[in-house]
Amino acid sequence: MQIKKNVFCALAAVCLLGVQAKAQKVEFTEYDLPNGLHVVLHNDSKAPVVAVTVMYHVGSKNESVGRTGFAHFFEHLLFEGSENIKRGEFMKVVSANGGQNNANTTQDRTFYYEVFPSNQLETGMWLESERMMHPVINEIGVKTQNEVVKEEKRQSLDNRPYGNLITYISEGLFPTHPYHNGVIGSMKDLDAAKLDEFKGFFKKYYVPNNAVLTIAGDINIEKTKELVKAYFADVPRGADIVYKKVEEAPITKQVTDTAYDANIQIPFMIEAYRVPGRDSHDSKVMQMISSVLSGGASSRMYKKMVDEKKNALQVVAFNYALEDYGMYIVGALPNGGAAPASLLPDMDEEIKKLQTDLISPEEYQKLQNQFENNFVSANTRMVGLAENLANGYTFYHKDTGHVNEELTEIRSITREEIREAARKYLNPNQRLVLYYLPGKGKAQ
Questions:
Q1: Residue 107 shares a structural domain with residue 170
Q2: What pTM does this model have?
Q3: Tell me: the pLDDT tens digits for 24-43?
Q4: What CA–CA distance (Å, rounded) separates 108 from 202?
Q5: Does one domain contain both 147 and 53?
Q6: What does the pLDDT look like over 313-334, one tens digit per residue?
Q7: Residues 216 and 338 in one domain
Q8: Which of 290, 351, 342 lies closest to 321, judged by CA?
Q9: Contacting residues for 198 by C-beta, under 8 A, at least 6 apart
Q10: CB 50 within 8 A of CB 118
């Protein structure tokens, strides 16, 4: 299983862009089963592999006060077994048939996948249909996975350098919205939950009308449709899910906080801003701003703080795009004993330049090239493409074809829009300043 683990590495990795061929239009077939399951099929016969994926539109933001951590818990629990798969056998079936599988949870969705040789397509579909229709949710499984989640929390968050960084940022930016809970939630809440509460959470959210089944790879579309019907048509439809976004009051005054991490020796100086959600045009603009500030050795913050002044070991600017809101995070690791607070003026100076002057035509062209390369790279693996297709339907108003529109939207962003977004969202009175320091502090 995987959640957002080493935050610094994750933020840095997003900024690395590989050189790929020109983007090609992604062809796909989509339709709904009568039970509400949305199905997306993509044929790519370049390699004899197939990815079978299911995205459920449920994440930590759907949890109740006092019962956090359920969505991530189910990421684990639904590998326990089913009425037709003995406990502990799920992953054995995958490996015995030459496949790989995993799952991950965010604040907004849970994503399961298997990658098989294409002649094992039916195996993948059977496994996901069993997970959806016949899971075994009992005291043994809940107790077992509760211990697994606790150990994951210790390894991935509590005992990992910078592991709780996103948690502290979320708490600061979202005092009201459930994004402040974090994906893994509270172990106290999971310990207190009753079996019927877990069953109720499954019955409400892990239903076909709250899911997208995406199959991508070496498949025959018409034969795959027949298999989809055979394995998923009998899954009962659930009740309609009504979600109401929790509105946060605007941040109008800088919030300053300090957190401590016993696993680190180097502080992390962070400034974070609340920005629009991932389906907005401005969210794409903020992605481009991230690249200008910290996208590689030629980026503005890197050249200024790492190369020239040498007061930072590393810098990062990252648009953490979520469904309801986003978190725009700018940060730096001090070098050579520099005080964390001394990094703020340099970060702010580069933001101020973006707010004042248009980026150069050369920088703009570089951004366009970077994002095209990044777009193509993201769609080279079948499981990545399947996830992007599911994301389009889930998060872009049922627009599965968003995968083919995203690059066009990026290309349409102007230098003036970059300046305007920096002016609109990246101001001192709209942010959280977090001193993330070595030592012991807030307990999670």
A1: yes
A2: 0.92
A3: 789 999 999 999 999 999 99
A4: 16
A5: yes
A6: 999 999 999 999 999 999 999 9
A7: no
A8: 290
A9: 70, 73, 74, 77, 137, 142
A10: yes
